[in-house]
């Protein structure tokens, strides 16, 4: 089955019966059964690849115990997945044009499933890190190729629906990841965090292998492959991702490795851009940035990644660190966000057909900003009900901004740029998330120390209330070896908890302010109104 070219179709049926995919009067007829089943298989694969970023988040202590890893080593279970993935995401556009979407996706899914099994069977942390790195690299191709198919295989009047489906996957997968991972670990074992990919992976291989023949590859692209460009891109993206992932834990540039890799990224990045703009056949086509809407949409997608992954990072961390919730309790509390996103998807699809996409982006970011700003007054007894409205506003806002930004980004690009552009868009979301986590992590660490200093400085040696509290604590710990020391430790714990809570409030406020600023950046885009049944304005 050959999908219709978006530049040639308007969603109208063919004038006369024809074989599926056969051209009729210049308008190829779409075999909807083949298209929908093939696309469904790709969507499931995309969900697996995004889910695996966060599915281990709530179960790191169990994995640490299972493979005998140290606290520093276990964080690499996530980092090892993310660093190689950022290289494959932009590279997938070139590989899709070289091999064809179907072959690339099948190879990616097969490798992902095999590495999932290998990771689940790992007996040491070194084995697990190696297999997770390969899993992230090969699985990275499943994410952007779905976007490319949505904007090339579907006629213009159906692209919004495809965007809604992708938006649900992209937002729900990282939201439900820690929840699903926590329950799997409690019900079965941590190894099932990886074995769970096998059954859906086999389904994906069948559906895409049977129905996903969307295009043909161009083997001639292999001649003159830009190995230098690939090397500079890998050095730039992997160094940058490592700095963002590990910088906050290692005091940033006080650490020699972080400083060295930051320099590598700063040098390799401009060289890669120069190479991509001057080489006759670059592995990543950067000329899409000449399209104003793509540029604005790219920035918006970066901020969507910041808001999506930032919110998904802050809430579970607060619930676990301050409220000491179990992974199951965290999942129950986080479900509001997922439900809000899921409920908003269909409405977002209808609105983006009727309204200027900039209006939806503005409204989405403002709702997200309001939800995060509302959480600035968080206290150490906040739980499900206090966070319910925060998550609802954020969930609705992120979904609206996500769907609208996809339309703004891709609507006015010529078809031949879509595959490369989809890789860049997905890279923007992932890197935005990495920047968000790095900034929020640093904010939490710095502000906790600041608030702790402020709290302790307010307590004088003659403070009557503190003396009474210490006396009461000492009496409570009268049976211990050193009641006074135990009381001091308990008071310190209370102050630390209060300082941590205040730092979380600052982080929520920061996220809200950034989302609010992003709302006004959306106004820089040109009008994009996707009318049902009509192609985007520049797609002709």
List the helices and strands and how they pair.
Blueprint: E1 23-24, E2 27-28, H1 32-54, H2 60-67, H3 71-74, H4 76-99, H5 101-120, H6 125-139, H7 142-152, H8 159-187, H9 192-195, H10 198-211, H11 227-246, H12 256-278, H13 292-321, H14 327-354, H15 357-374, H16 384-410, H17 418-457, H18 464-476, H19 483-521
Antiparallel strand pairs: 1-2
Helix pairs in contact: 1-7, 1-8, 1-10, 4-5, 4-6, 4-7, 4-11, 4-17, 5-6, 5-10, 7-8, 7-17, 8-13, 8-14, 8-16, 11-12, 11-17, 13-14, 13-15, 13-16, 13-17, 13-19, 14-16, 15-16, 15-19, 17-19, 18-19
Q: What does this protein look like?
A:
The protein has 540 residues and is mainly alpha-helical. A hairpin with a 2-residue loop joins strand 1 and strand 2. The protein is globular, with a radius of gyration of 25 Å. It starts with 22 loop residues before the first strand and ends in a 19-residue tail after the last helix.
